[in-house]
Design a protein that fits this description.
There is one protein chain. It is built from one helix and nine strands, in the order E-E-E-E-E-E-H-E-E-E. By secondary structure, the protein is mostly beta strands. The protein starts with a strand and ends with a strand. This is MATH domain-containing protein.
Length: 108
């Protein structure tokens, strides 16, 4: 799996949100017909003591390297929220993005 992060947004959310997308990539053969169903949690860590992370979790979506299948969030978090110093997402110019990814199923 490949995770694309657009710090200043993507598409209609450019300049408004941080965007995150998940893609299936076969490192050996981009025409592979294998499909993968992952279970995932993607979060931006609250680095303050509040520990109110911003996250999305899910499963049940099939990905294949042979197509342009991708899934994600054009508006994972609004830039105004991400940059709010009271929310603790950015500390010392650093943002922590944590990704948990597990394969639930594989299909040929």
């Amino acid at each position: 799996m490949l995770i694309n992060v657009y710090p200043n947004g993507n598409g209609k959310e450019t300049g408004r949100s941080l965007s995150i997308f998940v893609h299936h990539v076969d490192s050996n053969n981009r025409t592979c017909s294998e499909r993968v169903m992952p279970r995932y949690t993607i979060r931006i860590k609250d680095q303050s003591n509040n520990l109110k992370h911003h996250q999305y979790a899910g499963s049940g979506i099939w990905f294949s390297a042979s197509t342009s299948d991708n899934w994600g969030w054009p508006s994972f978090i609004k830039l105004s929220s991400l940059n709010d110093p009271n929310k603790g997402f950015i500390v010392n110019d650093c943002c922590v993005i944590e990704i948990e990814l597990a394969v639930q199923a594989i299909s040929s």
